[in-house]
Amino acid sequence: MTISEQQIQSVLQQTIDPTTHKDYVTAKSVSAIQIAGNNVTVGIELGYPANSVKHQVQQQITAALQTVPGIGAIQVSVNSKIIPHGVQRGVKLISGVKNIIAVASGKGGVGKSATAVNLALALSAEGASVGILDADIYGPSQPQMLGITGHPESHDGKTMEPMLAHGIQAMSIGLLIDAETPMVWRGPMVTQALQQLLNDTNWKDLDYLVVDLPPGTGDIQLTLAQKIPVTGAVIVTTPQDIALLDARKGLKMFEKVGIPILGIVENMSTHTCSQCGHTEPIFGTGGGEKMCQDYNVEFLGALPLDIKIREHTDTGKPSVVAEPDGKIAGIYRLIARRVAVKVAESAEDHSELFAKIVMEND
After folding, report:
1. Taking 50 as the threshold, does the pLDDT of residue 360 lie above it?
2. Which residue numbers belong to the known binding site for ATP?
3. Less packed terminus of the chain by CB within 10 Å, N or C?
4. Single Gene Ontology BP term (predicted)?
5. Assigned CATH for 97-350
6. What percent of the chain has pLDDT over 70?
């Protein structure tokens, strides 16, 4: 009995990607189907980095294809391809960067910077080329969280080389000034400084640049959102009403400037006592999920109020690298894959496909 491509397509159409929750045909993840007699080779190309689940996907598809009557040897290859996606109109793209993910919060103290750095490290752990830009000019924290010391190099006196930490590229105003120097600057100076950090850094072939934005929704934050070519934004909140109220303002800010919301991360969701093991929602429960329902955005995941997250970032080794096989790192990696899927589902950037029109005088 001869195996047909239609049979293979039919099986793949009934097999659901555990990360996207779509079948592989609908998700356009099937890059190749080759049939030699009864032997079948299938190529799967995921639009998100997937080191944690590649083997699972390979086994899942192999098992599904084994149900085809008369099928012989099965070979399934799984890889990832990250492409650029669209940003808000009228904003200049950044050389060497495919996609920019803004991590924001309506208020401070909700664990936004810890989420940003662990998200960046998790995307890297999943196989992507990643950078992080510390856009909090007044209170830069990424150098300490990443354990970076020293200053960035400049080979031409005009641009800077990103510093490297745990496999990702990083830039922060904190790398250019003394740690105890206060940034007593007005809004326009802060905006200019951020643009220089973004545009004057020689980012090298990044699939994702994670931007750790300062908290709040004032004039500075709005200006930053209008100047940075952002693919999508992640909102970080905690479950209590006050944090959610400010998080909603942050979400509306991005909507106003045309930046898609990739989803919401809820920090400090529950706390487990290290002495007795009792778990309780100190800051309330269900707030992040309720906000997602109200605005029709994705709930990316919930993180516990855990002393380890603080200890890891304080020592310059965030949870994803400090305990890569731990429960917390697993949550961050799941969130990272969901963020990457949301980016992959957004509109593609076709700017390079259009010819440039140059007016010349005869």
Report:
1. no
2. 106-113
3. C
4. iron-sulfur cluster assembly
5. 3.40.50.300
6. 90
